[in-house]
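Quick question: who can interpret this fold?

. . .
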Amino acid sequence: MMVDHSRLERCLKPRSIAVIGGQTAATAIEQSLQIGFDGPIWAVNPGRETLGGLPCYPSVADLPGAPDAALVAVPAAAAPTIVRELAEAGAGGAICHASGFAEDNDAGARLQTELIAAAGDMPLIGPNCIGIIDYLDGAALWPDEHGGRRVETGVAVITQSGNIAQNISMQRRGLPVAFLATLGNSAALSAADLASGLLADERISAIGLHLEALGDVHELEALARKARERNVPILAFKSGTSVLGEQANLSHTNSFGSPDVLVDALFTRLGIGRAHDLPTFVETLTLLHVHGPLAAPTLTSASCSGGEAALLADAAGAAGVSMPELPGSTALGLREALGPRVHVRNPLDYQTFIWGDELSQQQCFAQLLTAGSDLHALAVDVPREDRADPEIWRGTLRAFIAAHTEHPAPAAVITSLSEGLPEEHAIELVEHDIAPLHGVREAMAAIRIAASIAEARARPALPLLPDRESDTSPDHADRKSARVAQTDEDSAKRMLAEFGVSVPAGRVVDSAFDAGDAAGALGFPVVAKVVQPVLAHKSDHGGVRVGLMTEDEVIGAVSAMEGTGTQFLIEHMVTDGVAELVVGLRTDATFGPVLTLGVGGTLVEVVRDFVSLLLPVRPEELYEALRTLQLWPVLDGARGRPRADVDAAVRAITAIIDWATAEATVSELEINPLILRAAPPGTADGEPTEAVDARGAVAVDVLLRYAGAAQKPAEKPVKELR
């Protein structure tokens, strides 16, 4: 829906509240009073004189004014009428608490449609949600328990799940939650809508989105762009699996582009961090609140145990967090603070010589904080108070806080176990701009995610391609209604060649004897393929013969394939390749055009080494993507192998993308393999160069599914099937 942002701001930051319903509504009144809401709260119930200790108004029309926000806690059947009355009264927005809508059955879906219509352009949150809580200004349209506290600044958390929201509110990890919202069915407002409405509040340090479904990716893109402008990091926790478009799964790369891979590609493009579990989600939000995105995933740490130091090092390596060597000045200062018996390195085991000596610890930690890493961490777990005396450990925390006050570098305290830091200490650390991170694995994941946000934001934003569904032109309507047809390989290669993609020299023939003549003219060795009828995977049907060295071999091979095909493509065989890639393009119903690159040839489904990118992409992103492949050492000339012409590969992939984008009707394209020849002498390893030889990358096999109404004919007509 088109969001009225002025009304949405009123709803999210209300100065007046209406609560409509019975006992559930009374609970919401109690919650708002407990959290300290100081504006008017108007209760509406025609059958009661009071509700939650407040006098009741018989109807919305009887209210003394238009509420900024209203909790509608009535049965589902009555909700549309109440919502309509609120919209007509000029309310800022409504939160519909009731269930029994589209999540239930068809009747509920019809009722939800009625609810949306009743709201009109008034912001509507829900239905089937608990509500919202503003911990900054003290407003709780929330008819249930929660564990939050008033804060002056903090993160916003938006989730479709009421239970997840309650769990986050109950965390004891020191995370300051400034705003908590549940969306339920998200009938009218999406997570992106609510997050966008919160960006105007400078007290919001970061936004966390728990998404069960992505929704409109272009809404997320708009949110990410706005958040980047406001310098507010966004973190997403995407659970569940989205559904791909109902297209035939013909190509290898189509099966590789799983929803989760594409979610990663989307978030990377948009500069949205991604957590894969709830604890990491909470820890990363804490880190983002205290320090924001990290310029790089570098860490310097100290602990009084070699075992803890090893845990940190192992977890850092697994997460892609670097623990660089200590600078000379830092190492010298630590030696002076710790004495000759401590081996000074990163991670630092400062041992127990200074344990319990706060001043000495402070001196040690002050030196550690000069290391210049993007994060400096103290590893410590505070004992439980009911069975031990934690005072010495508290002294260690005091020493670290004091050192940080003296040297305010980015700092954190990392515990080995999630319960290793009592909440009061975590809150105190946050107040001193030190991030409390619970659990080594979660801490390292948070560091890596925080750095990934900065890495993505350092690149100029590249917009996603527009949604083709918004194209209302007659040509697009014709293409959309046309059946999706698979084009024969020869025609597909001719179209690609027009855009500069190198393909083998070849001829289409109708008989085995013509095939022999064509092979003699092309030069040996050759490949023979069935080109009609069109087959998705020709080798599975015995429709390919490779390495044919004489005309007799060609005649024999094509004769054997005449039971499978009626026309044949004879091509000169590329024999000087040093590597093979698979290049796939397809249009996903949610994500739009998707590019997949990976190990090609016969190993494509065995090795399953691939990377997916959302279009458009820049050439430098293609180089970066190729470097992430396990195949990269082969492409880069490992162990004396000739280095592949990666520059030619990038030019070919770019040309393929340009062609598919210009056509705008390609449903699915796969080139497997794209054979790479050796790079010309003198080219830099993996760095873009000027074009040297366009034939350094050759599209040897092409599968194309193409909207039939816009399909280009081949230069010479393809004979009808006999």
Q: What stands out?
A: The chain has 24 helices and 30 strands. Residues 492 and 704 are 6 Å apart (CA to CA). The domain at 5-242+257-276 is CATH 3.40.50.720 (Rossmann fold). The longest strand covers residues 577-588.
